[in-house]
Amino acid sequence: MNTSEFYDALPLKACDTCGETMEELADCYSNTCPKCKGLTFYPLSPVTPATPPSDADPA
Fold first, then answer.
1. Dihedral pair phi/psi, residue 8, rounded to 5°
2. Are 56 and 39 in contact (CB under 8 A)?
3. pLDDT of residue 56
4. CA distance 46 to 48
């Protein structure tokens, strides 16, 4: 087994309180998700931008 196979086989990180899957962060050792802690979390993963309404004025 090579290194990448080892890391791909690890289970996803989950919150200890609610069990929701959490994003892995390089310097984060927390086991409780931001929602259970009452924090606002801005994910590092790309998020698709919202499309503007079709009747928006381009001016």
1. -65, -25
2. no
3. 57
4. 7
